[in-house]
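The methods section describes the discrete structure representation at length, but only in general terms. The central task, working out the structure tokens from the amino acid sequence alone, is never made concrete. Nothing conveys this as quickly as seeing an actual entry. For illustration, here is how one protein appears when written out as sequence plus structure tokens:
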Amino acid sequence: MRIDSLPPGARFTVQDENGRSVAEGYTPQTVELAKSTGRYFGKKHCQVMLESPGYVPVTLSLEGKSNLWYLLGNIPLGGFPGWLLVDSFNGGMYNLQPEHPRPFLSPVGARS
């Protein structure tokens, strides 16, 4: 997943559903994030926090959503093994949304 911001150069931290930091850096940057918790149908929920001097901090939510390949692509392959066994454990059924977070950071004191 590519994490970006306007303006670029914001410091970001990605936390998982347990509050653990799973990625950090400066925008723009591509990070590898898990899509599953490892539990049966355990989709990930993450928070991306961005901050830059002179700008209001921004927090975004990332959530696992079922992808079209999981919903329709398993039909020609027999359906049930992919739907109920493989994809539901390894996270193959999910895409993190939004796919390319790119928030606009507002300057401190700016009026909308």
